[in-house]
Amino acid sequence: MRIAAIELGIVRVPLRQPFRTALRCVEQAVDVVVRVRTDAGLVGYGAAPPTAAITGDTVASIVAAIRGVMAPRLLGRSLDERDDLASLIHTAVPGQPSAKAALDIALHDLWAQMQGMPLYQCLGGGVPQLRTDLTISVEEVAVMVSHARQAVDSGYRALKIKLGRESALDIERVLAIHNAVGDRASLRLDANQGWTAKQAVEIMQTLEGAGVQAELLEQPVPARDLDGLAYVTSRVRTPVVADESVFNEHDALEIIRRGACDIINIKLMKAGGISGALRIAEVAGAHGLSCMMGCMLEGAIGVTAAAHVAVARASTITAIDLDGPVLCRYNPVEGGAVFGGPDITLGDAPGLGIHGVGEMERLDDEFTA
Predict the structure, then answer these.
(1) How high is the mean pLDDT of the chain?
(2) Residues 215, 245: one domain?
(3) Structural domain boundaries enclosing 90
(4) In this structure, are 296 and 249 located in the same domain?
(5) 335 and 232 in a common domain
(6) What are the pLDDT digits (tens) for 315-333?
(7) Which residues belong to the active site?
(8) What CATH number is given to the structural domain containing 301?
(9) Is residue 367 scored above 60 in pLDDT?
(10) Same domain membership, residue 198 and residue 112
(11) What is the pLDDT of residues 3-47, one digit of tens each?
(12) What is the pTM of this model?
């Protein structure tokens, strides 16, 4: 079975409310969608959101990398060459992890369809059920407390609290949310690189001294400040998560060598797709570190793929942050994972189980072999 055509499109879905972090403010989820069709009629789906502030990828760069470099390498190739195809994608251009992820996901979808099994089963996974946290965006204190209460009342038992703008106000935010819902939900604090190492330690020691037992602290310092990340990890009781500091297995090895975190956040869009995510999980597991499976602000295609990886590596991936689709007003993807509040359920359809995308704007004609 060979790759016969590759089609690109774009989907834009408004969010329920603006998504604010220390890095950006977003009002809609945007995905570049990739459909890879075989000469036997199978179709594999992948997608990538433009997240320039984190990965450097934009809509234009994702489309250009796939259209100009990656698609010509893949057309006509046999799907039996899964490892070779993954290598072709990942060596095609420097950087561009999200563009690579979109194609890598689509090829894994097709590979599992060829086996007649859901992807998580092909990867060795078991129970196809996950529970995600819900993100509470950076807002005024009263607004964040209100959103936290609504989330807990809706069944969420883990909240990711976005921070990283003002130290004193960040402390006030966490204390207020802790007092409001801390007895009903665990709190995951995410500074999105917004603090210095010294600030992070001072903030966390203040919170810990006030009785806040956060489940984790994610990426408190700038991504390349590994010394600062190690400084924080060694001085706070709360487990520290490396997110933007880890894009691949080499980053993971370096951060483990430095003792710079307790947990690694794996995201397909940083790792270049499923292949890279599995390598990070393998490295982390071999060194006794657990992982979180996270997502960018992306729709159901990428998050469905991430959920399959999380189920397949459940012994290592123990925290789930896959709330992208529930932050959207609606889900235009037909099939795939079912998102019911905090619950994510994978079906038994082959591959990712996706069979269509509504409201997709075609970006160009198909590339055909």
Answers:
(1) 95
(2) yes
(3) 3-116+360-368
(4) yes
(5) yes
(6) 999 999 999 999 999 999 9
(7) 162, 267
(8) 3.20.20.120
(9) no
(10) no
(11) 999 999 999 999 999 888 877 788 999 999 999 999 999 999 999
(12) 0.96
- Tokens encoding 108: 């894994």
- 165 and 295 housed in the same domain: yes
**pLDDT (average), residues 154-163:** 97
10 Å CB burial of residue 94 (0-12, 13-18, 19+) is exposed
d(CA 202, CA 207): 9
Give the ranges where 47-166 is alpha helix by DSSP (H): 59-65, 71-74, 82-90, 97-115, 119-122, 141-153
Angle of CA points 210, 215, 221, to nearest 5°: 85
What's the pLDDT score for residue 196? 97
What amino acid occupies position 226? L
49 shares its domain with 191: no
Task: Give the rounded distance of the alpha carbon of 326 from its chain centre.
Answer: 14
Residues with Cβ < 8 Å from 249, sequence gap 6 or more? 276, 279, 280, 282, 283
C-alpha distance from residue 21 to each of 26, 141, 243, 279, 351 (Å): 9, 14, 14, 28, 33
3-state SS class at 147: helix
Question: pLDDT, tens digit, for every residue of 253-279?
Answer: 999 999 999 999 999 999 999 999 999
